[in-house]
Amino acid sequence: MQTLVIDMDIPRIVLTQLLSRISPAAFFARSSPLRLLTLPDPPLPRPDWVRVRNRLCGICGSDLHQIFLDASLDVAPVALPSHRRIYLGHEMVGEVIEAGPAVTQFKPGDRVVRWGRADDCAARGLPDRCPACARGHRVLCERASEPREHHPIGGGFGDTFITPASTLVPVPPAVRDEQAIFTEPAAVAIHAAWRCLPQAGQQMLVLGVGTIGFLLIQVLRAVQPASVISAVAEFPWQADLARACGADHVFLAQADGYAETAARTGARLYHGRAGNRMLLGGFDIIFDVVGIPATLTNALRWTRARGTVVLVGVNLHRMNVDLTPVWYQEVNLLGAVGHDIVSWQGEEISTFDLALRWLQSGDLRTDPLLTHRFPLSAYRQAFATALDKRQARSIKVAFEGLAASTAEA
Ligand SMILES: [Zn+2]
Ligand SMILES: [Zn+2]
After folding, report:
1. Looking at domain 2-118+153-182+366-408, what is its CATH homologous superfamily?
2. d(CA 133, ligand 2 centre) in Å
3. What DSSP line would sit under 216-250, residue for residue?
4. How far is the CA of 233 from the centre of ligand 2 (A)?
5. Fold (topology level) of 185-335
6. Which ligand is nearest to the CA of 139?
7. Cα separation, 137 vs 49, whole angstroms
8. 2-118+153-182+366-408 and 185-335, same CATH topology
9. Residue 133 backbone phi and psi in degrees, to 5
10. Predicted confidence band at 409 (pLDDT cuts at 50, 70, 90)?
11. Residue 141 CA, ligand 2 centroid: distance in Å
């Protein structure tokens, strides 16, 4: 089994963080915790596990945070125990090549995407469910950080991996591999939209357009055609694509967002001292898909009283944010992580299944989003390209040909 990992080796992590101040090449040096390993194929540890051969796997923003060690040690998630080794790559599509004797839902040859981590109650095979899992919110499982036998399981950035069958979702034949790798980010975007579903006539702002932002615009368009969607893009080419995804108005991050918000929504703009500005009125809902102090501070000020900001962007640092709009204008601040179950047209459905349905129907169009492909051996170039929006104009970068050598064997 070939697999790309990050070892949670504190001396290596600290050394790499220091060396990276001199050169970003440190993230890929021998001293880095990131390594491409060849390990013996692990046996299936339990009868309900399967082995999957990867076909294509997208690089997620959260992978980049891990690879470039972009986290502080004093934030909440870091307080939880973590595994000694992280197997990278979750936005994969592959095919089952071995199924344990207790697996009924998959057989070799079935195409699958990975639902997520293998640490919730169902994936652990527990007879009961914690309160979060009982409500269907498996990503929020209360047992997620309890000790677990640590198998070498592999991930999407490799040729094969093993996992409990309950962590996989079948891919309909009509959904191509190139679409299927967007199932997970689309499930994330759908969950984010459901945190605050727009009503007819409402004004929304999607702040930041990468893969999740482009998918979120399409999701919002699908669930509420009679709303007005604005978006903030960093580059003009992103603005064009945001419009093609269904945004009514797009402005660039370098533009005056206060003036843009006032013009779009009729909000009143006030100037305080030293460039301190505030709006009364504003967007009904803002999705902050970037999630850094500047965007979150702006989002809270650009939202009308009792409007809602949904924090979608992942940031593993303490943030210096002006929270006063939360009490002064009673702005709701909500978060969104991972995927969920939602009710849609009278049906309780996993956002994974809804994502696959909308990929198949064409409500979610992903072809313009897959901009680059690399073999796994070129992983350094792939990660650098994924970071480089300006020159490379990357949106989703994916690894291909993952199991080429083993497929011939
Ligand atoms: Zn992802
Ligand atoms: Zn649970």
Report:
1. Medium-chain alcohol dehydrogenases, catalytic domain (3.90.180.10)
2. 4
3. HHHHHHHH-TTSEEEEEESSHHHHHHHHHHT-SEE
4. 37
5. Rossmann fold (3.40.50)
6. 2
7. 22
8. no
9. -65, -35
10. very low
11. 4
Radius of gyration of the chain (CA): 22
Residue closest to 2 by CA, chosen among 29, 36, 32 = 36
Which listed ligand is nearest to 124 at the C-alpha? 2
The bound ligand whose nearest atom lies closest to the alpha carbon of 183 is 1
Q: Using the CB atoms, write b or e for 78-94: b if 16+ within 10 Å.
A: eeeeeeebbbbbbbbbb
pLDDT tens figures, 218-273? 999 999 999 999 999 999 999 999 999 999 999 999 999 999 999 999 999 999 99
| C-alpha 186 – ligand 1 centre gap (Å) | 9
Q: Higher model confidence: residue 292 or residue 25?
A: 292
Question: Which ligand is closest to the CA of 133, given by its number?
Answer: 2
**Residue extents of the structural domains in the chain:** 2-118+153-182+366-408, 185-335
Neighbours of 343 (CB within 10 A): 9
Ligand nearest to the CA of 185: 1
Ligand 1 mean position, distance from CA 22 (Å): 29
Report CA(90)–ligand 1 centroid distance (Å): 6
Q: In the numeric block, which tokens belong to residue 79?
A: 């307080």
Rounded CA separation 306/201 (Å): 16
Tell me how far the alpha carbon of residue 116 lies from the centroid of ligand 2, in angstroms: 13
Instruction: Report the separation in Å between the CA atom of 132 and the middle of ligand 2, taken as the mean of its atom positions.
Output: 6
